[in-house]
Give the backbone structure.
Amino acid sequence: MDSKFAALIIFISISYHQACGQKLNCSFSIGHQSVYSCFLKVDNPNGLANFTEITGTHLPEMTNEDVTKVAYGSLKNTTTPPPIVCETFQNPTEVFITETVIKSIKDSFRYCSKLKKIEIYLNNLFQRDSMEIDEDAFVGNPELRLISAWNNRIKSLHENVFRNQNKLMYLWLNNNEISDLGDDIFLPLHNLLQLDLWSNQIKVMKRNWFRNLTKLEDLWIAVNQIESLPPNAFNNMVNLKMLALSANELKELPNNIFSSLKSLKIIYLEHNKLKEIHSESFGYLLNLTHIYLTNNQIDAIDERLINNTGVTYIDMRNNTCANVNITDNSTSRDVMRNALQKCFENYKLLYPDETTTIDTTTDPTFSPGCIDGNLDDRVCKLEDWNQELEDKIDILTENKQHMQEDIENLLKENEDLREDLENQVLLIADVQDENQKLQTTTEELQKELEELKNQFLIWTTRPCACL
Ligand SMILES: *[C@@H]1O[C@H](CO)[C@@H](O)[C@H](O)[C@H]1NC(C)=O
Ligand SMILES: *[C@@H]1O[C@H](CO)[C@@H](O)[C@H](O)[C@H]1NC(C)=O
Ligand SMILES: *[C@@H]1O[C@H](CO)[C@@H](O)[C@H](O)[C@H]1NC(C)=O
Ligand SMILES: *[C@@H]1O[C@H](CO)[C@@H](O)[C@H](O)[C@H]1NC(C)=O
Ligand SMILES: *[C@@H]1O[C@H](CO)[C@@H](O)[C@H](O)[C@H]1NC(C)=O
Ligand SMILES: *[C@@H]1O[C@H](CO)[C@@H](O)[C@H](O)[C@H]1NC(C)=O
Ligand SMILES: *[C@@H]1O[C@H](CO)[C@@H](O)[C@H](O)[C@H]1NC(C)=O
Ligand SMILES: *[C@@H]1O[C@H](CO)[C@@H](O)[C@H](O)[C@H]1NC(C)=O
Ligand SMILES: *[C@@H]1O[C@H](CO)[C@@H](O)[C@H](O)[C@H]1NC(C)=O
């Protein structure tokens, strides 16, 4: 073929590509701990998102397979991270998109099935729109351990969005504009250690949100507009160490609301509208050492709060009955008792009979078990026991079933064996018969042989002349 003609074809195909296909450009580098990363640049002045290829030169001996991290530099006018990135590099474990103009996450991460970290924070700096996260945004990422999505103007999330994230350990959604989330949204996240909802616009805390988060250690829901806590909201969170409820609109704390948080060390309740502190809200929490109650309107505190918990630090500045923060490491709590005297006295005046009422909170073995009932906690406990018994009965019934089946099988085997045995006996009888017959035959044959021998003798003793 004419070489000029061939060159023309190549030239045409290149310019065609440049005219229609938009490009992403990677600069590849090896960083900390030999992480091979692609630093992406986007050049699309028209804001389109139909990318056709990713350019860039790999470091020697490296390929697309080796890319374990993708970071977006500037996305210019592109507002959705394009799926072509995960179609091209399928092995990244980390993706970073921060300080860009993205406002939606669709199938952007679908094909990066090995992702452990998605960091998409601080994307609210250059745009006023809220970020939309698709229901299927994380469906292809079952290995995720961290989703960091703070400062994005997220207003809401689909109730199913985390359905494949049962390995997730850290979920940071702070500094968004979330006002409502479905009741069951966090149920799949049973390995979660930290949940951060700090500074959003949540008015109503849902009953089920934390029901399945039995491994959670830190929960931030401070700086929202929550007016009340649903009963049993924090049950099951036996590993929770820190609970931040500061800067909400809480007026009171329900009985036993914190009492199953046996690992709780620190609770932040500053800047709320609390007026009284009942010991029943806390129960018997020996691990609880720090209670922050600054800037409430507290006028009365049940003394059992300091008798039944491990509190060594209580911050009561800017309250009605006291304006102090106290550190008291002594087991007698004398310093605390003196400093909060007025609060305790007020409480006794308001509730003179309190100590004579049945107090489940002083029973260290008491732990309310129901997860989502509105029932009294003791009824819940009974229900749990019932459930346990029912479970045990189920197991026993199943065992019995198995044993019966085993017995039936054994009986059947026995039957078969007996039949076999009988057959064997019959067989032996047959063989014996046969044997008998053979013996008779042998005897007869022997007789015949004997006769033949005799005849032979007669034959051989005859004179030769006869032949
Ligand atoms: C990208 O989209 C624009 C506008 O819809 C279109 O003109 C162009 O052909 C598309 N390019 C490709 C490669 O699909
Ligand atoms: C990609 O980026 C590198 C480094 O910034 C640059 O040298 C190269 O020309 C770019 N390639 C394309 C096709 O834009
Ligand atoms: C893309 O961004 C530039 C500024 O960065 C702006 O002038 C231009 O109008 C934008 N184009 C579209 C299609 O949004
Ligand atoms: C709740 O957590 C358990 C593990 O503790 C898990 O098996 C179950 O699937 C979770 N529930 C939901 C609705 O995801
Ligand atoms: C304190 O927390 C630990 C786990 O962090 C737990 O094992 C222990 O039982 C708790 N103490 C009490 C008194 O509940
Ligand atoms: C708290 O403990 C102190 C010291 O043991 C005791 O004098 C006081 O009566 C207790 N208060 C309540 C309300 O049980
Ligand atoms: C107590 O309240 C006053 C007046 O609102 C405020 O200026 C001060 O900072 C508060 N103190 C604390 C420790 O928050
Ligand atoms: C109270 O706490 C603040 C900050 O934690 C500290 O600066 C101050 O000295 C404390 N006051 C008392 C009386 O303990
Ligand atoms: C109380 O204990 C804590 C830690 O256990 C310590 O940091 C603090 O200095 C102690 N305070 C006093 C007054 O002994």
Residues 20-226 form a domain with the Leucine-rich repeat, LRR (right-handed beta-alpha superhelix) fold (CATH 3.80.10.10). Helices lie at 3-20, 84-88, 279-282, 304-308, 334-339, 341-350, 377-461.
